[in-house]
Amino acid sequence: MNGGGLPRRLPAVAVPVSGESFASWLSRAAADWQLAPGEAAQVVGLECRSGYSAVRPVFFGIALTERSLVQAAAATGLEARCLRAMQLSRYAASALDFTGLDLSLEASLTAVGHREWALFTSSRACPKCLAARPVWQLWWRLGIAAVCPVHQVLLVDVCSRCQIRLGRGYAAHPRGLITRRGEVDLSRCNNRRPASRRRKAGLCDQRLATLPTTPVPAALAALQQRVLDIADGRNAPRVAGRRVAPVEFFAALRFTAALVRLVATADDLAACAVLPDEAAETFAADQHGRQQASRGGAGTQLRASPPSAAHAAALLALTEPVLFTPDPHACQDLVNDWMGRAVAWRRTPGKSDPLRPVPRPPCLEPLVRAAAPPGSRIAGALSARPAARLSFTADHLPHLVDAEDYAELLEPHLPGTAPVSGRRLAALALARLAGATSWQRAAADLAMETLKAARATNTLVQRITDPDAFWTAVEQLGARHLERGLIDYAARRRTLAGLTAVPHAVLYPVCRPLEHDVTLQRRRHAAAWVWQHFTGGDVREAPAYLPELWTPTSTESVREGWRRFAVWIPDTVADHLIAFGRDLLHAHVPGGA
What we know:
There is one protein chain. It contains 25 helices and 8 strands. The chain has a two-stranded antiparallel sheet with strand order 1-2. It has a two-stranded antiparallel sheet with strand order 3-4. A two-stranded antiparallel ribbon has the order 5-6. It is globular, with a radius of gyration of 27 Å.
């Protein structure tokens, strides 16, 4: 480090290859410096986690924190633009959506990692590319990465020797970087294998160039290249003959992929001439496993990232007729067929609509709506009513409507419904009145957790016996909402998203006279109280109740602690917390309090 706290300028730095991933560049640079990758990360000044045997840079290869960016630029002389281009965040405006990622909070990556189509702790690879030079392409880490357009082969996911995903690093610590010099040969797998009865722990020495590959038709390789050109902004996409932004194209890809995962048959796979047998068989096996799973999960959801290159290849081939057909009529015919199968599937006894949680992009909305008229009598009743003249948007709505309003206006229409669930459905219904074209869109407009919104709309609407009376009550609720004055609840949620504990100095003056200690638990319950008071959200979703903040405390204990706090809180403390919350909002949201 120099006197200013920045790393010393390194004398020689490997030049990044166009499209290269950050982990690949760091490994090549480390080899030039005769260092292990973990040592190179430290020399470059990357911000790393502490307390692990392996070096683990935070958000490694995903995004650079401000500290990592400044220090890496100072150490290497590379421009910030060049360093950022090697991160997955490069695709944040096209193939990926990093909404919710907070580079000051590693825990924020969990939700993004479950939602987005990317490999956050590994990479796919083309052995033929790596045989030519040890450069790993960044796009190999996209979930839709399937085929090498140059060599026309399926990408490889797993090392045939260690049976660990490529680029995984330490098996126990994904993306952990080796720190022992002399061990790294860039032509080999280098995954850290755990010790077993038959072998010691060590690096996998499988030569990457000799990993087996599966050839694919040139048409599938060309299709992969078209998708990559859209992701990189080199091609303006069209869907059903309509020009769309890259982010909407990939939203259409994900919705169409969910649809074909639900309804594609063996005949569809057989009719797909560009699909190699391995990809078709893999997709069919994955589809069968999802359908047979007794419980849901990330791997069984229609929205999940493709688990393998073969699965991704099948999705590319099956969705191509919708995503790239210039004739809207041909596109409509195919969507009609698929949606017809989806409707028949969800009418099977015991089945619900698994497509409900999948966001539907605007470019496909007319096609899907034309193919499948509202199956819900509740949504159908809304479409048949004259449009309500309401001047609020979803940003002006809490996630839970006022408890008294709900009890008076909507509770009679939802017999046997828990108040919190009913209030959530009421908020979604208001978002429908505000212009959302579907329940899924209402949840997205409210930035509401998708599964909770789906549970409310899938189950609770079935309890409504008089749809017209229900929507009349919702319109009355909207009128009351307007009369009280509009509040930007979305801005409040953003401002208070980082409130995990009320500062000790805020609580001490009002708790000490009451002879109550200001413990960390009380500060967190107070933060949840402030968040609920100003956002109108479900307190269980408050940032102060993120599971990682309470480990190893059980969920039941946390909820009991909140219940006691809510019963205990005296007016003096409540007034003090309200003033504290207003100060926070005034500092960030004009008129926010």
